[in-house]
Amino acid sequence: MTRTTPLGVGLVGSGFLARTRARCYRALPGGGGRLLAVASRDGAKAATFAREEGIPEAVKDLDALLARDDIQLVDLCVPNHLHRPFTERAAAAGKAVACTKPLTAYVGQDLGPEASDAEVSGVDRRRMAAVAIEDARAMVEACERAGVPLLYGENWVHAPAVRRAAALLEASGGRILDLRGWESHSGSHSPYSKLWRYTGGGSLIRLAAHPIGAMLHLKALEGVAREGAPITAVSVVADTAEVTAGVAPGPGVATGWVDVESWGSVSIAFSDGTRGLAMGSDTMVGGMQSRLVVLSDQSHLECNLSPNDALRGYGAAPGVFGGEYVMEKAAHDAGWHSFIPDEDASSGHLDMCADFVAAAAGEREGRSTGALGYEVTRVVMAAYVSAAEGRRVTLDEVTP
Ligand SMILES: NC(=O)c1ccc[n+]([C@@H]2O[C@H](COP(=O)([O-])OP(=O)(O)OC[C@H]3O[C@@H](n4cnc5c(N)ncnc54)[C@H](OP(=O)(O)O)[C@@H]3O)[C@@H](O)[C@H]2O)c1
Predict the structure, then answer these.
(1) 172 and 127 share a domain?
(2) Domain check: are 110 and 173 in the same one?
(3) CA neighbours closer than 13 Å in the CB half-sphere of residue 272
(4) CATH number of the domain where residue 46 is located
(5) Residues 172 and 98 in one domain
(6) 299 CA to middle of ligand 1, Å?
(7) pLDDT tier, 2 (very low <50, low <70, confident <90, very high otherwise)
(8) Same-domain check for residues 58 and 137
(9) pLDDT higher than threshold 70 for residue 3
């Protein structure tokens, strides 16, 4: 890095994702980004969060962050319905914006707060797609107008395993023929994830969005390297289901999904005729699994983001390791486990924060930008249309 003083970062949100981001910014080497303030809905919670994470200040809201000249990058770790309005406000204030995935979702933003949960999830999927894609476009355009980068928080793109795979693919000059990727675990920690009006869908948008992002990224890189232009997604065939219906609550998979799927798959057809098959599901106990298999005419690559076997360990009884963290979504430490040595690094979150900072400082273009987030939104929303209508759907037909 050429900067002598760290770039100022403001964090919005103090929940699950914000914890990861706070750890990562703290771990960036000197001259990287420095978290200067956190804003959250609940001031007391923000103050506790700031104290625990070593952030100098908790401020009352987004406006208080935006008013500060020493903050150049705003990192949005807030629920999906806030992504567009917060991005527009941050961009108008001249701040670089990092927005977590999904860039946008349909959460009834065109219905108003009085709409019931059933009315939100009952909206025709084509209308949902039009609203969510329009929101994504508006976010990209707002940042373009303001001349600030919009960085899309897809950690898979930054994961060391995916970066190494991209380098090997480029060196081989191969054609990616077949991508298979999934993220699965035993169910979200948040009760909000069970309702469409908060998340904009279930495992497809919450989990499969990750492999979808990585696939679109790798095919785009391949196209640029081989033909000078990205290979893009053109159509999808998808299926979704609530497969835990009837399962009694217990120590296994999460239950109680109200109006969202706990299993989703999408087959993506790319402009060169090749395919990517992405899945997300809340059906897997034993820790989160995040995998991407890349099959080219020259090679076979397997990215194991989680778990990975850098450290395998066996606990003779629950609690034998004194409550030490195991890995995301591991319920306990008894039996065999993958004690991932540095999950923030292997998941890509650490390098992603470094990339956010470098892009916000104008040192390079971000690796995962609003353009990727926009395309992921198109794939996910086309997938919901396909699952509802039971047929292949092109991205163009659902894009307003
Ligand atoms: N790997 C990934 O990329 C990844 C992983 C997890 C989540 N996510 C994404 O991250 C986002 C947040 O998810 P999460 O799991 O972190 O949710 P969470 O634990 O519920 O946290 C959400 C945070 O947003 C804050 N918030 C809500 N309304 C706000 C407002 N008007 N102004 C300021 N802050 C507000 C909440 O504050 P209070 O606590 O005060 O209510 C809370 O701190 C979602 O878009 C999700 O899809 C991405």
Answers:
(1) no
(2) no
(3) 18
(4) 3.40.50.720
(5) no
(6) 39
(7) low
(8) yes
(9) no
Structural domain count of the chain? 2
DSSP count for the chain of H helices, then E strands:
15, 15
Q: What stretches of 307-366 show up as alpha helix (H) in DSSP?
A: 343-346, 349-360
Please, are residues 146 and 242 in contact by the beta-carbon 8 Å criterion? no
Specify the residue with its C-alpha closest to ligand 1, atom 44: 79
Query: How far is residue 83's CA from residue 62's CA, in Å, rounded to a whole number?
Result: 12
Quote the percentage of the chain above a pLDDT of 90.
Answer: 93
Residue 373 in domain:
no
Tell me which residue has its CA closest to atom 36 in ligand 1: 13
| Whether residue 85 is found in the same domain as residue 191 | no
User: Does the pLDDT value for residue 347 go beyond 50?
Assistant: yes
Give per-residue pLDDT as tens, 185-237.
Answer: 999 867 889 999 999 999 999 999 999 999 999 999 999 999 999 999 999 99
Check residue 1 and give its pLDDT.
Answer: 45
Integer Cα distance of 261 and 240 in angstroms: 6
Per-residue model confidence as pLDDT tens digits over 259-279: 999 999 999 999 999 999 999
Domain that holds residue 72: 7-155+352-364
Q: Are residues 71 and 184 in the same domain?
A: no
Distance from residue 206's CA to the centre of ligand 1 (Å): 13
Q: CA-CA distance, 212 to 154, in Å (whole number)?
A: 10
Ligand 1 centroid – CA 100 distance (Å): 9
User: Do 12 and 93 sit in the same domain of this protein?
Assistant: yes
